[in-house]
Design goal:
The chain is globular, with a radius of gyration of 15 Å. It has a 5-stranded antiparallel sheet with strand order 2-1-5-4-3. The chain contains 2 helices and 5 strands.
Length: 100
């Protein structure tokens, strides 16, 4: 699969600061603030492996498809599709809680 096919649509995500496309073999594509960020790729893959261990009894479905890591200034959105992990770093546009 070509790099353009792997990253189609990732550039158009609103407030996107960077992205990684990762496989078990390593980083397949990267851009922005995550360009060549092997450390973040390793951390995200370890989080995916850990989360993948939490299966519901009797379920053949994967334990999750998407995971968010929310920090004060930005959010990492992690999506697992096939044998690839897509990580997008976005600006965290927090909404103030509504007081009733």
């Amino acid at each position: 699969m070509t790099t353009a096919a792997l990253t189609a649509g990732l550039e158009r995500i609103p407030d996107q600061l960077g992205y990684l496309v990762i496989s078990e073999d390593g980083v397949l594509a990267s851009a922005g603030e995550l360009e060549n960020d092997e450390n973040t790729a390793g951390v995200m893959m370890q989080m995916v492996r850990t989360a993948s261990r939490f299966r519901l009894p009797g379920s053949a479905d994967p334990p999750f498809k998407r995971m968010s890591v929310i920090l004060e200034d930005f959010v990492y959105t992690v999506t697992v599709s096939g044998q690839k992990v897509f990580v997008v770093k976005r600006q965290n546009n927090q909404q103030e809680p509504i007081s009733v």
